[in-house]
Specification:
Elements: H1 2-20, E1 26-32, H2 36-49, E2 53-59, H3 62-71, E3 80-85, H4 86-91, E4 96-97, E5 119-120, E6 122-123, E7 126-131, E8 156-159, H5 165-178, H6 180-189, E9 190-193, H7 196-205, E10 210-214, H8 215-223, E11 228-231, E12 237-238, E13 242-247, H9 253-264, H10 266-276, E14 279-280, E15 299-300, H11 304-309, H12 311-323
Parallel strand pairs: 1-2, 1-3, 8-9, 8-10, 12-15
Antiparallel strand pairs: 3-13, 4-13, 5-13, 6-14, 7-10, 7-11
Helix pairs in contact: 2-10, 5-6
């Protein structure tokens, strides 16, 4: 009886250990489109729950990662795409695996793909960042259309929309509001860089007067003491989000599900909010300090599906105009 009891205890411990993730092993490869610090902190917390799973994170822009996933689709090397723009997902939804996360009940249907290929993560609302040493109040643009004014030529910086998901969202929003005639003039006024990070860093340092970036970046730079303001365009900024998903055919599918479940959890979202000062799409996660209440931000009915469907054509036209500058 004692021997049987001991065996039962061992078996019970194995079941409990398996349930808690203590005996999960192997690895998961995460293609990270969000802030590397966010991925690092989510990984650290994930490892506390699943210490046997090694996490390999590859950090790059959304455009670069989507190109990589597309090129690898016959033999996928990644398991998870973390924090990519919804436009990127919708433009290539066939690359991602349907999966109903354990956190499904905590998400509004508006931020979940119809086939459950992705779940929303943060709300990177796009805004204008103005350096007040270079453009004191009340100067500077007040709207998307203002960016086309001759007075701002050479003062604007923006990431290349072919390389950055947020930059493509900025382009798509301006297109939906104003069309190519205005975009043509904005391109003429703007310096384009390879990284979204360079946009808010350069404006904060005074190398450019105006940047187009996520509102959370403006808050972060202001808290560091830089003389910058966040200006929400008067026509409105699109209510949009980024998301997390399983890459279809990924080599570590079961570990990938565990990672996505954790990234979609309240704890995962709270890590993102604390690290990046972005709003979470989850209703049970408090907005970051220093952000204007979402209800007070001027918005418009941004069509992310239209933006996704028109992505290739829009980027081709952008490249044609840009190359002729």
């Amino acid at each position: 009886m004692k021997k049987l009891s001991a065996l039962a205890l061992v078996a019970g411990a194995l079941v409990l250990g398996s349930a808690s993730g203590a005996f999960a092993d192997g690895k998961v490869v995460v293609y990270n489109a969000t802030n590397p610090k966010t991925a690092d902190r989510i990984t650290e917390a994930f490892k506390q729950k699943y210490p046997g799973i090694a996490v390999e994170a590859i950090n790059a822009g959304v455009g670069e990662l989507l190109t990589r996933i597309t090129s690898e689709k016959a033999n996928p090397q990644g398991d998870v795409l973390l924090g990519a723009s919804v436009e990127a997902f919708d433009s290539a939804i066939e690359l991602f695996a349907p999966y109903t996360t354990k956190e499904d009940g905590n998400f509004d249907r508006a931020v979940v793909a119809k086939g459950h290929e992705y779940y929303g993560f943060s709300m990177p609302l796009q805004a204008l960042m103005v350096n007040r040493k270079l453009l004191p109040e009340p100067g500077g643009p007040k709207s998307w259309a203002d960016l086309a004014k001759p007075e701002f030529k050479g003062k604007i910086i923006m990431a290349n929309p072919a390389l950055s998901g947020s930059a493509y969202a900025q382009l798509a929003q301006m297109l939906q509001l104003h069309g190519w005639d205005v975009i043509d003039k904005i391109i003429e006024n703007t310096t384009f860089v390879t990284s979204s990070k360079l946009v808010y860093q350069n404006v904060a340092k005074g190398e450019n007067a105006i940047g187009i970036t996520g509102d959370y970046n403006v808050v972060e730079m202001r808290e560091k003491g830089y003389p910058v303001d966040c200006v929400y365009p008067s026509e409105g900024t699109g209510l949009r989000f980024d998301a997390n998903a399983l890459i279809k055919g990924g080599p570590n599918a079961e570990n990938a599900k565990l990672f996505v479940d954790f990234a979609n959890s309240r704890e995962g979202h709270e890590i993102m909010v604390k690290t990046e000062k972005r709003r979470s799409v989850r209703k049970d996660v408090v907005a970051p300090a220093g952000q204007m209440a979402t209800a007070d931000v001027p918005t418009f009915a941004y069509d992310s599906k239209k933006a996704a469907d028109g992505r290739d054509a829009a980027l081709a036209k952008f490249e044609k105009i840009f190359s002729s500058k």
